[in-house]
UniProtKB/TrEMBL annotation:
Protein name: SET domain and MYND-type zinc finger protein 6
Residues annotated as domain SET: 8-250
SUPFAM superfamilies: SET domain
Chain positions covered by the region annotation Disordered: 1-22
Residue span, MYND-type domain: 59-103
An example Gene Ontology CC term for this record: nucleus
Record InterPro entries: H3K4_H4K5_MeTrfase, SET_dom, SET_dom_sf, Znf_MYND
One Pfam family, short name: zf-MYND
Record field: compositional bias (Polar residues): 1-14
Domain of life: Eukaryota
MF annotations from Gene Ontology: zinc ion binding
Keywords assigned by UniProt, alphabetized: Metal-binding, Zinc, Zinc-finger
Length: 495
C-alpha cells in the first residue's frame, strides 16, 4: 500500500495535512501500518553533511555504509583534500550531486574548514542556484517554517544565523539575497536531523523537507534511522489509518520539566503530547517511594547532572570520566529513592559504558551493559526500539570478546563474572537469536539487520559444527540466562 509521494525519491504510507494543537502541518497514515514497517523512506537527502571530525574517517558519499561492509581505506578529493571517499564510485556520485559546486570554495578557504551547518547551507544554496533541485523539492522545502519571529527574540541566535548566511552568500557568489539565504539557514537549524550510521553513531547533519513535516511527541509512534544516505522512518507501534505520525526530537526519557524546556528553547513550542499532559504523573518523574524531603533529591540530581556535563562537555581522560560517572551514580543511589531507570541514572551508565569501552575495560563494561539490557532498557524502550536492539548488540559483542580473549587478570569485575560460571557461548547465542527473531518487527535499518543476521548464522553454525543445537536445548540456555540474571543482581548490590 505504500506509494510515491509527489517527491520522486520518497516512498511513504503518509500524506501531509493540518495538525491539531497549533502544530502546523503533519504527516498522516494513509493505511494501517505494522510495527517495524517503513512509514517514510527517502533515498536521496535534500542535504547531508558530516561533522567536522568525521570528514577524516567517513566517506562523504555513502556516509560509512560501504566501509562497514568492506573496511576500505578512504582517499581524499584531489581538488580540496578535505572530503574523502571509498573509491571513484563514491567520489563520482558526490561530485555529480554537489561537490563539483563546492570543491573550489573549500580550496580557497584552506586551511579553514567550514563547520557542518555552513557546509550544509553552502550546498543547499549552490544546488538551488544551479537548478539541481526539482520544483517539487524546493516547494516542500520553502513551505517549512523558519520561526524567524521566535529567533528574533534571541540576539545570540540571530547573530549566529546572520553571520553564517553572510559568509555563505560571499563564498557561493550567488545572486540569492541574504534574506533568502538566512531563511534557508533558519529552516536548516530547526528541521535538520542528526545523521547517524546504521549503528546509530552520530556523524553529521541531515535534512529532508518531507520528513521534516513529522511533528514531535514525547509519546511517539515512529523512529528515525539512517543507512548510508537513506532515511528510514519506521513504526514503533501499530499505526492506524489517518493517525498522525510522531517522532521524538529530543530524549524523551527525561522528566516533564526537562523535556518541555528543551522543546520550547530549541523548537519553539509548548508540548501538548499525551505524555506531557499527564504532567509529573508518569514513570519519567517517579521515585521509588514518595520522598520525605524532596530537596535532597533535587540536590542529588543537580550534582549528578553537573558531573555528567563535565564529562560530555570537556576533554577528560577516560579514567577521570569513569571516576566522575561512578561518583555521580553513587550520589543518586545514596538517596535510596532513585530508580535505576530514572534520568540521569541511565545517561550516567551509558556514558560510563562508553568510557570503559574506550580503555578496553571489557569485564566492567560487560556488567554495566548487562544491567542496562536486563533492568533498564525493558522499562525505557519498547522491544522494537532501535536503541534497545543496539544495546543488545553491544552486549553480544562483549560476550564474543570475553569468550574469545578471556578476562584481565586482577579486576574485581572479572572475578565476579568468573565466579558466576557463565557460559558466554550460550548467552551470546541467546542474545543473537532473540535479536534475529525480532528483525521483522524492529525499527533498525537494513545494514544493521544484515550484520545481526550474519553474526547469528555464524554463532549458530559453530554450535552445529560441534554437534549441538541450542534451539533444541532450551533448559541449558535458560539455566545460563538465570546465571546472567543473578550476576546482574550481585553487580547491582555491589554498586
Ligand atoms: Zn563511500
Ligand atoms: Zn574537493
Ligand atoms: Zn511531550
Amino acid at each position: 500500500m505504500s506509494s510515491q509521494s509527489h517527491l520522486p525519491s520518497v516512498t511513504t504510507k503518509t500524506v501531509p495535512g493540518p495538525a491539531p494543537n497549533g502544530m502546523g502541518n503533519g504527516l498522516f497514515a494513509t493505511t494501517d501500518i505494522k510495527v517495524g514497517e517503513d512509514v517514510v523512506h527517502a533515498k536521496v537527502p535534500f542535504v547531508a553533511v558530516l561533522d567536522k571530525p568525521r570528514l577524516d574517517d567517513t566517506c562523504s558519499a555513502c556516509f560509512g555504509k560501504r566501509q562497514m561492509e568492506t573496511g576500505t581505506e578512504l582517499k581524499a578529493c584531489t581538488g580540496c583534500r578535505i572530503v574523502k571517499y571509498c573509491d571513484r564510485t563514491c567520489q563520482a556520485k558526490d561530485w555529480k550531486f554537489a561537490h563539483s559546486l563546492e570543491c573550489s570554495v573549500f580550496q580557497k578557504l584552506k586551511p579553514q574548514v567550514l563547520p557542518n551547518n555552513a557546509r550544509a547551507l553552502l550546498r543547499m544554496v549552490l544546488r538551488t542556484w544551479k537548478g539541481k533541485y526539482t520544483t517539487q523539492e524546493l516547494g516542500v522545502f520553502t513551505n517549512l517554517e523558519t520561526h524567524i519571529q521566535d529567533i528574533q527574540e534571541s540576539q545570540a541566535h540571530l547573530d549566529r544565523l546572520n553571520l553564517t548566511s553572510k559568509a555563505v552568500k560571499s563564498y557561493s557568489e550567488t545572486n540569492m539575497t541574504q534574506e533568502a539565504i538566512m531563511a534557508y539557514a533558519a529552516r536548516l537549524d530547526i528541521n535538520s536531523f542528526n545523521l547517524t550510521t546504521a549503528m546509530y553513531d552520530r556523524i553529521g547533519l541531515y535534512l529532508h523537507p518531507y520528513a521534516a513535516l513529522i511533528n514531535h511527541s514525547c509519546d511517539y509512534n515512529a523512529t528515525v534511522g539512517f543507512d548510508g544516505e537513506e532515511l528510514f522512518v519506521k513504526a514503533i507501534r501499530p499505526i492506524k489509518k489517518d493517525e498522525q505520525i510522531f517522532i521524538s526530537y529530543i530524549d524523551t526519557t527525561t522528566p516533564n520539566e526537562v523535556r518541555r524546556k528543551e522543546l520550547s528553547e530549541r523548537f519553539f513550542f509548548d508540548c501538548k503530547c499525551t505524555k506531557c499532559t499527564k504532567g509529573t504523573d508518569t514513570p519519567e518523574d517517579k521515585f521509588t517511594t514518595t520522598p520525605k524531603d524532596p530537596s535532597t533529591l533535587e540536590t542529588a540530581e543537580k550534582q549528578a547532572l553537573e558531573l555528567l556535563q563535565e564529562v560530555t562537555k570537556s576533554d577528560l581522560n577516560p579514567e577521570e570520566e569513569i571516576k566522575k560517572m561512578e561518583s555521580a551514580m553513587q550520589i543518586l543511589k545514596q538517596t535510596s529513592n532513585w530508580p535505576l531507570t530514572r534520568q540521569p541514572y541511565p545517561a550516567l551508565r551509558d556514558q560510563l559504558i562508553l568510557s570503559l569501552l574506550s580503555i578496553n575495560n571489557f569485564s566492567k563494561a560487560f556488567l554495566h551493559t548487562a544491567i542496562r539490557y536486563l533492568r533498564i532498557d525493558p522499562v525505557l524502550f519498547s522491544p522494537a526500539h532501535p536503541i534497545r536492539q543496539l544495546h543488545a548488540w553491544v552486549l553480544a559483542k562483549l560476550a564474543i570478546y570475553l569468550s574469545q580473549e578471556g578476562f584481565e587478570s586482577n579486576s574485581k569485575e572479572a572475578s565476579l563474572i568468573q565466579q558466576s560460571e557463565l557460559n558466554f557461548h550460550y548467552v551470546l547465542w541467546y542474545i543473537l537469536a532473540d535479536l534475529a527473531s525480532r528483525q521483522g518487527e524492529s525499527c533498525t535499518v537494513p545494514s544493521f539487520k544484515r550484520l545481526v543476521g550474519a553474526n547469528f548464522a555464524q554463532v549458530h553454525n559453530e554450535f552445529k559444527a560441534n554437534g549441538m543445537d541450542p534451539s533444541t536445548s532450551k533448559a541449558v540456555v535458560s539455566a545460563e540466562w538465570k546465571k546472567l540474571e543473578r550476576l546482574v543482581q550481585v553487580a547491582l548490590d555491589q554498586e
